[in-house]
């Protein structure tokens, strides 16, 4: 089969398309014929060696994917060969076949296409945990969504609206803001608007925003603090700027702010939180209230281009690779 291989860490062009043996499922694993791989900012950081965990090479990237169950390892029960599944594994999905522990499979409505199913797990579980599990957002509350046309951003807008919240969306271009509006964002503001802090505070009734999903980091982190309401909750989810942010705890004291980190990988080990998110998301996706946003789609031999486009802010929705 064809698979992407990374032998040394670096920019996207360290990825190479190679021939590899079709993997056999170990006990407790399933093998999936990969239909679509969801590419996350985290995949690009992992290839660069800048992710939260150390990347061991050589390896095949790709943590999120969907496809058809093709073979079952010893002891696997309750999974049918021939059904479409999504999966959230550690790596290995940028290939024609991938193996994954059966426990890492995520049931998806069979109405979703392979690409929609691959666009679902990371962005929607993260958005749910940001808005509800950690963010404790309530219907009628304002939430600020940064990088609003991206994979996580589009998921966050849809979920927030489905949960009855009011959304302020920030993004870098008018085209991206138009996508945010189409998904239901109530207020859209260019992220480089010189008056952005005042505009965001004014939009939320002049008092600032009670809940902020922070994904940019760097000097923008200070702005998130300035945009927050008194007692505001800032959920730190990403650092797309790849710059260091400064946090002076005294500033949190003055306005009773809460800053909470969110990492989906560790939250997936929290069984009750995962079960609650899965229940809520299954209902919303099943009823069609939220629809995973498929962005540009690339072939396996265009993987370098896909990563470069994602890193250079040229994409909206979830970047998909179809082997
Ligand atoms: P996106 O599809 O949102 O793409 C990244 C977007 O970030 C860009 O399109 C761009 O939108 C925005 N951005 C802002 N500043 C920069 C910059 N300096 N350089 C590049 N992009 C920038 O990607 P994802 O949905 O995969 O991820 C979004 C963020 O959420 C990332 O930081 C990611 O690491 C994080 N994340 C974290 C998770 C967790 O478990 N903690 C899980 C999922 C995502 P614009 O042009 O509008 O500014």
The total of beta strands comes to 15
Q: How much is the radius of gyration in Å?
A: 20 Å
CATH fold-level label of the largest domain? Quinone Oxidoreductase, Chain A, domain 1
Largest sheet: 7 strands, mixed
Which ligands accompany this protein? NADPH dihydro-nicotinamide-adenine-dinucleotide phosphate
Short précis:
This protein is α/β, with parallel strands linked by helices and 323 residues long.
Q: What attributes characterize this protein structure?
A:
Quinone Oxidoreductase, Chain A, domain 1; globular; alpha/beta; 2 domains; 11 helices; Rossmann fold; binds NADPH dihydro-nicotinamide-adenine-dinucleotide phosphate; six-stranded parallel sheet; seven-stranded mixed sheet; 323 residues
Structure description:
The chain folds into 2 domains: about 1-120 and about 295-320, Quinone Oxidoreductase, Chain A, domain 1, CATH 3.90.180.10; about 125-265, Rossmann fold, CATH 3.40.50.720. Helices cover about 30% and strands about 25% of the residues. It has helices spanning about 40-50, 115-120, 120-135, 150-160, 175-180, 195-205, 220-225, 250-255, 265, 270-285, 305-310; strands at about 1-5, 15-20, 30-40, 65-70, 85-90, 95-100, 105, 140-145, 165-170, 185-190, 210-215, 230-235, 260, 295-300, 320. The strands form 3 sheets. Strands 3, 4, 5, 6, 7, 14 and 15 form a 7-stranded mixed sheet that branches. Helix 5 (about 175-180) links the parallel strand 9 and strand 10. Helix 3 (about 120-135) packs across helix 4 (about 150-160), helix 3 crosses helix 10 and helix 6 (about 195-205) packs parallel to helix 7. The protein starts with a strand and ends with a strand. NADPH dihydro-nicotinamide-adenine-dinucleotide phosphate binds near residues 123, 149 and 262.
């Amino acid at each position: 089969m064809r698979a992407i291989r990374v032998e040394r860490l670096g920019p996207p062009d360290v990825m190479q398309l190679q021939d590899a043996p079709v993997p056999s499922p170990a006990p407790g694993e399933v093998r999936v014929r990969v239909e679509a791989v969801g590419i996350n900012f985290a995949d690009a950081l992992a290839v660069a060696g800048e992710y939260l965990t150390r990347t061991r090479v050589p390896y095949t990237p790709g943590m999120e994917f969907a496809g058809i169950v093709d073979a079952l390892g010893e002891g696997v029960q309750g999974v049918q060969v021939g059904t479409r599944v999504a999966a959230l594994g550690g790596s290995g999905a940028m290939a024609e076949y991938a193996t994954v522990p059966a426990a890492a499979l995520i049931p998806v409505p069979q109405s979703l296409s392979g690409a929609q199913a691959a666009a679902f797990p990371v962005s929607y579980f993260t958005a749910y945990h940001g808005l509800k599990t950690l963010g404790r957002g309530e219907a009628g509350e304002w939430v600020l969504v940064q990088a609003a046309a991206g994979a996580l951003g589009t998921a966050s807008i849809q979920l927030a609206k489905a949960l009855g919240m009011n959304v302020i969306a920030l993004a870098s271009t008018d085209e991206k803001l138009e996508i945010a509006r189409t998904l239901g964002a109530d207020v859209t503001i260019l992220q480089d608007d010189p008056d952005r802090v005042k505009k965001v505070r004014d939009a939320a009734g002049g008092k600032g925003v009670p809940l902020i999903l922070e994904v940019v980091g760097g000097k923008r982190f200070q702005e998130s603090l300035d945009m927050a309401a008194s007692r505001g909750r800032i959920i730190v989810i990403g650092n797309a700027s790849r710059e260091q942010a400064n946090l002076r705890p005294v500033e949190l004291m003055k306005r009773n702010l809460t800053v909470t980190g969110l990492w989906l990988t560790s939250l997936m080990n929290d069984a009750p939180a995962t079960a609650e998110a899965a229940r809520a998301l299954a209902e919303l996706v099943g009823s069609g209230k939220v629809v995973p946003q498929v962005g540009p789609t690339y072939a396996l031999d265009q993987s370098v281009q896909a990563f470069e486009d994602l890193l250079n802010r040229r994409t909206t929705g979830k970047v998909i690779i179809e082997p």
